[in-house]
Prior knowledge:
This protein is an alpha/beta fold. 39% of the residues lie in helices and 17% in strands. The strands form 2 sheets. Strands 5-4-3-2-1-8-7-6 form an 8-stranded parallel beta sheet, with helices on both faces. Strands 9-10 form a two-stranded antiparallel ribbon.
Amino acid sequence: MRARMSQAQSPLQRILAQRLIAVVTAPAGDSLVEIARALAAGGIDLLAVPAAAPDAANVIADLADDPAIVVGVTDVVSVDQIALAVASGAQFVICPACEKDIVSMCRANGLAVIAGGATPAELYAASSLGPDLITVFPAAMLGGPAYLRLLGRTFPGLPIAAAGGLDIDTAPNYLEAGARAVIVDKGLFPDTIEEGSAHIVTMRASALVEVCAGISDGRPSRP
């Protein structure tokens, strides 16, 4: 398991260092905090709560109180959701598209912002608005890691992240393809939350962290 990042690092620095963000979902809303803490126990402490999740503001606030966790909001599509993020203590946002007003409001409130689009034209346009990372969404439906490699060749130096349909098996492939960060939204949680589920989540998170730690600069590190 990786050591915790220094608390002196900014949210963006931690994202770039750890490269692995988990979307916190659970079949029951009151399980979100428990599941989130189970992820952090497994070494994934960059956590994104969906803006539309049940009781999202209180979940974000609870997690923001933990100094070991950096919590953000995903699926952000409006400035109203940025206001929720700020009021709840979130430190970053993830957007499926890149809108000038959203990026500007994130900047004004000190939030790291990951935003982009689907097509090369959308991603190129997003880069001019200045998000911290350009997210390809939904990456799994657009051609997966092969699509990311093509984008990397077309736009060298573009700080690309991958989101949308990534699971514990496929996420490392996007890092190998050159993604600066991956947002995992599938495969970390059991279909039903019951006694022992937190332990399962922690073990899955720990295994994913270990695999991703062996990937450096878009290439697997080998002896």
